Amino acid sequence: MMAYVLISLAECDEQRVLDELLSLKEIQEAHVLFGEWDILAKLEANNPEAAGTFVMEKIRSLPEVKLSSTLIVAK
Predict the structure, then answer these.
(1) Is the domain defined by 2-72 classed in CATH 3.30.70.920?
(2) 3 state DSSP class of 44
(3) Please, which residues have CB within 8 angstroms of residue 61's CB and are 6 or more apart in sequence?
(4) In this structure, which of 34, 52, 63, 69 has its CB flanked by the most CB atoms within 10 Å?
């Protein structure tokens, strides 16, 4: 299944966080954004539970991440 994760960061180097996310095999794409959200990441997971676990353990655990929103693709 596919999901998109919107990520808001504390003051930091967005490129460094982007590079760290892109090094994870589950992240298919990631981009720095302008506006309220700082990074958009495309995530591939086996099921919604695996996606949730990945976001909590690999994305939200990063000290620079202050907020995230996960959007699971319906079709």
Answers:
(1) yes
(2) strand
(3) none
(4) 52
